[in-house]
Amino acid sequence: MLQAIALTRQFGRHTALNALHLEVGKGEVFCLLGPNGAGKTTTINCFLGFLAPSSGRVLVNGIDVQAHREEARRHIAYIPETVMLYPYLTGYENLEFFHALTGQAYTKSQLFHFLLDAGLQEAAIHRRVETYSKGMRQKVGIAIATAKNAKALLLDEPTSGLDPRASNEFSVLLQRFSSEGRAVLMATHDLYRAREVAGRIGIMKNGHLLTVMQAQEVDHYALEAIYMEHMNAAL
Ligand SMILES: Nc1ncnc2c1ncn2[C@@H]1O[C@H](COP(=O)(O)OP(=O)(O)OP(=O)(O)O)[C@@H](O)[C@H]1O
């Protein structure tokens, strides 16, 4: 569903991504770990079509993002660290607004249920977003992605700043989202959540994808040890 093929991105003389190969299949959750500046956000921005590759390609559902940006974007949803919503609108009104942009036609009851299914409490749905916690905003983000019928979800450090319960709820939501056959690519610094939610985990450093592993095959301590080993090695 998401494919980076020899994806290279330079900023001036700095190579932020160096011939990255990455594939995230339908129904898969892939977590990208790596230190600040590793290239995680640059990868996501290339998939979103915000940044053009210097060389190589990015495909969404087989569509070349550079050549057909709008078409590719139809299949993806994006959840950044802080989901941008209109603070003076309610959660429901935000969903109604963003869903109207996609041209899909849902009834009021269907929209309401997207928010309920995303875990937003019923009492909060008609409250202004300015009163929402970060976790609640992310639930609205998931509802928007579901209503869009996005085939792939890109997330950039979505659990940073969430308390453990909110973070756990979010992991469950992502797993449900992927179990519906959608691809999930999540950049994170949270090794614990990565292991909990991912099918595969990749470690990036200096624009290189150094290793990819099955999350099931490592426990938290092993993942941390592998991560530290890569961080301490020269590259
Ligand atoms: N617009 C830009 N102009 C110049 N350099 C950039 C730009 N965007 C990113 N970079 C550089 O590219 C490299 C990769 O940055 P990127 O934001 O992708 O890393 P990251 O892994 O997401 O880091 P973090 O964990 O801090 O979010 C860094 O060296 C960064 O300074």
From TrEMBL:
<dbReference type="GO" id="GO:0005524">
    <property type="term" value="F:ATP binding"/>
</dbReference>
<protein>
    <submittedName>
        <fullName>ABC transporter ATP-binding protein</fullName>
    </submittedName>
</protein>
<feature type="domain" description="ABC transporter">
    <location>
        <begin position="2"/>
        <end position="231"/>
    </location>
</feature>
<dbReference type="InterPro" id="IPR051782">
    <property type="entry name" value="ABC_Transporter_VariousFunc"/>
</dbReference>
<dbReference type="InterPro" id="IPR027417">
    <property type="entry name" value="P-loop_NTPase"/>
</dbReference>
<keyword id="KW-0547">Nucleotide-binding</keyword>
<keyword id="KW-0067">ATP-binding</keyword>
<dbReference type="Pfam" id="PF00005">
    <property type="entry name" value="ABC_tran"/>
</dbReference>
<dbReference type="InterPro" id="IPR003593">
    <property type="entry name" value="AAA+_ATPase"/>
</dbReference>
<dbReference type="InterPro" id="IPR017871">
    <property type="entry name" value="ABC_transporter-like_CS"/>
</dbReference>
<keyword id="KW-0813">Transport</keyword>
<dbReference type="InterPro" id="IPR003439">
    <property type="entry name" value="ABC_transporter-like_ATP-bd"/>
</dbReference>
